[in-house]
Structures are given as C-alpha cells and as structure tokens.
Amino acid sequence: MPVTVTTEAGPEDHRDQRIAELEAENERLRKIRDALIVRVESGSAHKPEPYAAFEHSVVLAEQVRERTEALNQTMDELKHSNKALNRAREEAETTRQRLADAIESIADGFVLFDHQHRLIQCNSRFRSYWADARLDVPPPGTSIADLKGHGDQFRWWSKSM
Description:
Blueprint (H helix, E strand, L loop, with lengths): L10 H36 L3 H56 L5 E3 L5 E4 L1 H9 L11 H17 L1
Antiparallel strand pairs: 1-2
C-alpha cells in the first residue's frame, strides 16, 4: 500500500494565522478610526454651535439695522438736496429770463461778453443790425476779434448805402 503523508496544520498554526489576520484588520481599523477622529475634530472648528450662530445672527441684525438707518438718513438728505437743487434751477432760470428781458429792453444794440471776451447774449436790435447788413448774426461764443472782422464788412455796407 502506498503511504500518504498528510500534513495537516495543527490547531496552533491555524490560530497563529487567525491572530495575524485579526491584528492586520485591527491595524486597518485603527487607521480608519484615527482618520475619522481628525476629520471630526477639524470639522467642528468650522461649524458654529447653536448659541454662536444665534450671537452671530444678532450681530448681523444690528449691522443691518444700523445700515438701514444710515441709508434712510442719506435718502432724506438726498431728497432735501434735490429740492434745493430744483429751487436753485428755477431761480437761475428766472434770473436768466429777467436778464434776457432787461437786455432786450435796451433801446440800442447791446452785447454781453464773458470774461474771455466771447459773446454770451445780445438783443434783437444788435441782431437786426447784422441782418440789415446782410451778414450772418454772430453766434454765442464768437470772440470780439471775430466780431471786429465782421464789423469791417458792416462798415463797408453802411458806407455804400
């Protein structure tokens, strides 16, 4: 008969192998545990606790109230400024119209120049002198020098009549 050799591991070998597997799994679980602990500890620093969230909302509400109050005050000031600006515009327009009426009431030709010696305004008699001479009426902004140049043509026309 043939002899068969069976090498059966003894219960000790099987136990040692099982202990090695359990130690490896235990080490893997420790790494997972440590990673989870780090994640939980670092995550809690970023998440406010309920009371801290309440305090933060109170601070934000106060800031919103203060800014709303400042905005309302600014809006009131803006309304007052707009009213004052409208009054000033109306007064300036009234003054301009009175000046135009006063210049127009002068019996002779009249011209108003600015500080740079440029034509600002003239009355209808001044414009009629130019129209009678068949010359273009000088527009606002025309300098005195340009008027004098046109005036030479005006003198020529008036002498020829």
